[in-house]
# Entry
Amino acid sequence: MSSSVKSIVVLTGAGISAESGIETFRAEDGLWANHPVDDVATPEGFSRNPQLVYEFYNQRRRQLLSDEIKPNAAHTALAKFEHDFPGFFLLVTQNIDNLHERAGSQNLLHMHGELLKMRCLNSKMVFDIQEDIDFDSHCRCCRSPGNLRPHIVWFGEMPFHMNQINIALEACDLFVAIGTSGNVYPASGFYQTAKIRKAHTAELNLEETGSTFDKHVYGQATETVPSYFEALLSA
Ligand code: NAD
# Structure
């Protein structure tokens, strides 16, 4: 391991889970899994038609819990690297799936929430869930129907854990973004925060995203992530 790298922040996006069979998000056409983003990923969409929003996340949750969806070699490589790396390692994911934790990642922050959690609109308490939820589902704390919402950060809402993430970004030597288009703020600006302290920045993606990282590695995440992190450990 290169002795100069002591602190690493990795950001992942939907691209790392694509080869596990989970569709990415396509901001250019304004659709997510064939639904307008405004309908299924904004607080206004939820107020307009909560039943549609419940059903959208029910479908994503059912898919995530099905036998076909498993962590891939990229998720596993990150968990192995974290285990073997002697310095500080933080994994920040924009993904709402649970494939990083299933692969064994430990120091992990879900900045956009989690598909397997719901939140009470009154108490703000967060619950683990596996089952479908609809407008008639009763909240576990206030026991009323209609009080639960997906524990997902929608457009216009503040992502979770931002203080912790910014502290780690400002202190890291290396920042690596994997499988993210750089279209969703504030994650799209993380590499610039990391550069404030002159961290080296690298992007692993299928294709060019237009962001000015120091290093770009193009290819499928299941190939690029294991080789990049193996090389980092033996450097
Ligand atoms: P995005 O869909 O905007 O971008 C995905 C990026 O991954 C693209 O740049 C694409 O070139 C790249 N990519 C696709 N397949 C790849 C592969 N096999 N290997 C390497 N790179 C690959 O995703 P985003 O930037 O994460 O933003 C989307 C938002 O939608 C996030 O906020 C996230 O919460 C949400 N989302 C999450 C999931 C999930 O949890 N798996 C899925 C869809 C959307």
User: Anything to note?
Assistant: The first helix runs from residue 15 to 18. The chain has a mean pLDDT of 94. Residues 13-15, 17-19, 22, 24-25, 27, 94-97, 112, 179-181, 183-184, 205-207, 209, 220-221 surround nicotinamide-adenine-dinucleotide (CB under 6 Å).
